[in-house]
Each structure stands twice: as structure tokens, then as C-alpha cells.
Specification:
The structure holds 2 protein chains of 2 kinds. Chain A is mainly β. Helix content of chain A is about 0%, strand content about 55%. In chain A, the strands form 2 sheets. In chain A, strands 2, 4, 5, 6, 9, 10 and 11 form a 7-stranded mixed beta sheet that branches. Chain A has a 4-stranded antiparallel beta sheet with strand order 1-3-8-7, with no helix packed on it. In chain A, β4 and β5 (about 40-50) form a beta hairpin. By secondary structure, chain B is mainly β. Chain B has strands at about 5, 10-15, 20, 25, 30-40, 45-50, 55-60, 65-70, 75-80, 85-95, 105, 110-114. In chain B, the strands form 3 sheets. In chain B, strands 2, 5, 6, 10, 11 and 12 form a 6-stranded mixed beta sheet that branches. Chain B has a 4-stranded antiparallel beta sheet with strand order 3-9-8-7, with no helix packed on it. The chains are: A mainly beta, B mainly beta. The interface of A and B includes residues 33, 43, 55 and 101 of A.
């Protein structure tokens, strides 16, 4: 398996633009997580899905952030409009739920909003 | 709610020296504990995990960790550090009866001097 795949790996955009981050989880995993990592706040859980259904989005910072999981093999995190303070590394992770299993992380998307 | 504390933001060691990274948790019952490593530009990767049984667990890359209930700790150790161990290390806890979502510590950055 190729592991969790994220695209793009790097994104530079201007304030006000829409940004879409993509994630393909490991085949067979039924839970998917979106995290944001910054120096100031560390690793923050934004939202997680179980069986393609959003379970907890309390970590989503604002209404500008939205996430979808239309099927078991694809998820998106969208920021519209983007702001400089959204600059961070965004990670997607997947795992098999229902037990104390490990999460498998993607390589991350480094987002820079100018 | 559970919490995880990694008291050391940075640790500097010389190559070949021993290493101990500290992790303390706050939770009433026995948690399920993990250590992850994040190499520069990459996502987090599981080093080892503790669920039950032997309190000394072995992981990949020569790492081990010991669960000490009396101290609410799960410290990570390595007898001889290699330059390639320079990375960010995260301790995480998952509690029973919950959603199996890990709570991560803020991380400890390991710097290895030649």
C-alpha cells in the first residue's frame, strides 16, 4: 500500500483565495482525520470522519473551513477565503476504528497564505 | 478529559549518547499510550505503543518505552542515539470508553550533535 496520500505537498496562495487540500486514506481504513500543525499551537485535530460521516468538527477553527468525505477513498479540506493565519502544515491521517489502533499519517501539505 | 505533557520542548544530545524523552499523562484509568516520530518534512510515524502487559515495550529503530503507573509516565528511551534520530517526538494517549481519538502532547524536538 502507498500509505496515506496528500496533495498538493506545497501550496502558496494569496489571501482571499480558495484552497482545497486532498487526501486519500489507506484502503480499508474507516476513520480519517485532518490535523493542522503550527509552531504556536502544535498539532490540532480539526475534524474526523468515521465511515465517511463527520463525527466531530469541533476543532474546525471557523466557518471558512469545511471538509468532506464523499467516499471511503477520498477527502477534502477546503478553506474559503484563506487568510495568512491559516498558514500551516495540514496532515491527513487514517486508521481502523473500533480499537486502540495507530494512526497512519500522510506527508502533509504545507500551506502558505500571503 | 485526558491530557498529555511533554515537559521538554528541545533536547540536545551527542551522537552515541543515551536518550530519554519524558511523557506524563493525566487520566483516571489506564490509558493506551503511543510514541510517534516526525522526521523533517514528513508525517508522524508510530514508534511503539502500550496497551497492557509488560510495561517495557520495544519499538522500531531501537527505541523502547516504559509505562509507570505510579508516576503516570511513559518515557521514551534509546541507549545510543544516531544522527538520523534527529526529529520531533510526540507522545499520545487514547482512553477507553471514548472515541479512540488520541490526544497528542506538544512534542519534543531532538537535536543530535556529531
Amino acid at each position: 500500500d502507498a500509505g496515506v496520500i496528500q496533495s498538493p505537498r506545497h501550496e502558496v496562495t494569496e489571501m482571499g483565495q480558495e484552497v482545497t487540500l486532498r487526501c486519500k486514506p489507506i484502503s480499508g481504513h474507516n476513520s480519517l482525520f485532518w490535523y493542522r500543525q503550527t509552531m504556536m499551537r502544535g498539532l490540532e485535530l480539526l475534524i474526523y470522519f468515521n465511515n465517511n460521516v463527520p463525527i466531530d468538527d469541533s476543532g474546525m477553527p471557523e466557518d471558512r473551513f469545511s471538509a468532506k468525505m464523499p467516499n471511503a477513498s477520498f477527502s477534502t479540506l477546503k478553506i474559503q477565503p484563506s487568510e495568512p493565519r491559516d498558514s500551516a502544515v495540514y496532515f491527513c491521517a487514517s486508521m481502523n476504528s473500533g480499537g486502540f489502533n495507530e494512526q497512519f499519517f500522510g506527508p502533509g501539505t504545507r500551506l502558505t497564505v500571503l | 478529559a485526558q491530557s498529555v505533557t511533554q515537559p521538554d520542548i528541545h533536547i540536545t544530545v551527542s551522537e552515541g549518547a543515551s536518550l530519554e524523552l519524558r511523557c506524563n499523562y493525566s487520566y483516571g484509568a489506564t490509558p493506551y499510550l503511543f510514541w510517534y516520530v516526525q522526521s523533517p518534512g514528513q508525517g508522524l510515524q508510530l514508534l511503539l505503543k502500550y496497551f497492557s502487559g509488560d510495561t517495557l515495550v520495544q519499538g522500531i529503530k531501537g527505541f523502547e518505552a516504559e509505562f509507570k503507573r505510579s508516576q503516570s509516565s511513559f518515557n521514551l528511551r534509546k541507549p545510543s542515539v544516531h544522527w538520523s534520530d534527529a526529529a520531533e517526538y510526540f507522545c499520545a494517549v487514547v482512553t477507553s470508553g471514548g472515541s479512540y481519538i488520541p490526544t497528542f502532547g506538544r512534542g519534543t524536538s531532538l537535536i543530535v550533535h556529531p
